[in-house]
Amino acid sequence: MKIIIQHNSMVPIYEQLVNQIKSLILEESLKENEPLPSVRVLAKEIKASALTVKKAYDLLEQEGFITTIHGKGSFVLAVNRHAKRENLLYSTQEELEQVIKKAQQAGISKAELAELVAMILEEEEA
After folding, report:
1. Three-state DSSP string of the chain
2. What whole-number distance in Å separates Cα of residue 57 and Cα of residue 1?
3. What is the sign, positive or negative, of the torsion defined by CA atoms of 24, 29, 31, 34?
4. How far is CA 110 from CA 15, 101, 116, 121, in A?
5. Euclidean distance between CA atoms 49 and 83, whole angstroms
6. pLDDT tens, 115-124?
7. Do residues 75 and 36 make contact, with C-beta atoms less than 8 angstroms apart?
8. How many Cα atoms sit within 13 Å of 74 on the Cβ side?
9. How many C-beta atoms surround the C-beta of residue 17 within 10 A?
10. What is the reported pTM?
11. Torsional sign, CA 49, 58, 31, 35
12. Whole-number Å distance between alpha carbons of 27 and 55
């Protein structure tokens, strides 16, 4: 499991962990019933406290992404299709916001941008 933590980020470490593990599960890089690293092992790998990792795992469990079995560890649960769709919509929205910002910086009008998007969508349908 590849997790990259930005220690100088304004986003708390536990939140970075939650977001990255969720993405790995939704992209199915982490499969159902696959074990996650223990809290201590992951904490050592990302150079964070075990309490931080525990907080992330607790949130993931509350949201239904993982389950923890006392004495055995934490495991990935089956992917919820609704959650997967929501995650894809959210990431698409973030990407579109970046594209819109870039277009605005380039002086592209809303009408030009809308026309460009419509043209691309038409090409995809063909």
Report:
1. CCCCCCCCCCCCHHHHHHHHHHHHHHCCCCCCCCECCCHHHHHHHHCCCHHHHHHHHHHHHHCCCEEEECCCEEEECCCCHHHHHHHHHHHHHHHHHHHHHHHHHCCCCHHHHHHHHHHHHHHHHC
2. 14
3. negative
4. 34, 11, 10, 16
5. 28
6. 999 999 988 8
7. yes
8. 22
9. 23
10. 0.69
11. positive
12. 22
Average pLDDT over every residue of 4-15: 94
Query: Which tokens sit at 23?
Result: 């993405």
CB 77 within 8 A of CB 67: yes
Distances, alpha carbon 37 to alpha carbons 2, 9, 13, 44, in Å: 11, 23, 16, 10
Q: Write the pLDDT tens digit of every residue in 39-79.
A: 999 999 999 999 999 999 999 999 899 999 999 999 999 98
Q: How far is CA 121 from the centre of its chain?
A: 26
Model confidence pLDDT, tens digit, residues 80-106: 777 778 878 888 898 999 999 999 999
